[in-house]
Design brief:
about 0% strand; about 90 residues; about 80% helix; mainly alpha
Length: about 90
């Protein structure tokens, strides 16, 4: 897997997937095309983690970095919007 893809998908997973799809550089995976499309739209971090597992395995530090960031975004991502809503 390309290191640029891994770093870009850490911060902007949906954008990284779309860019690499248009360039024809999506990593090898066994997810069907409709799964790629739906996961890119609704759960892009999950799709990136699937790509990492299928290409690098779970022993890769990239897997753990993406997993920790994904869990953090899931748990704490809504707090910012909730605080902003309460201020208004």
């Amino acid at each position: 897997m390309d290191t640029i893809f891994l770093v870009l998908s850490l911060f902007l997973p949906r954008l990284a997937l779309v860019i690499y799809w248009f360039l024809g550089m999506i990593p090898f995976n066994t997810v069907p095309f409709y799964g790629d499309v739906l996961l890119t739209i609704f759960l892009p971090r999950v799709l990136v983690i699937i790509f990492i597992v299928q290409n690098l395995g779970t022993e890769s530090p990239w897997f753990w970095i993406h997993l920790i960031v994904g869990i953090g975004v899931y748990l704490f991502g809504g707090n910012k919007a909730r605080k902003r809503k309460n201020k208004d």
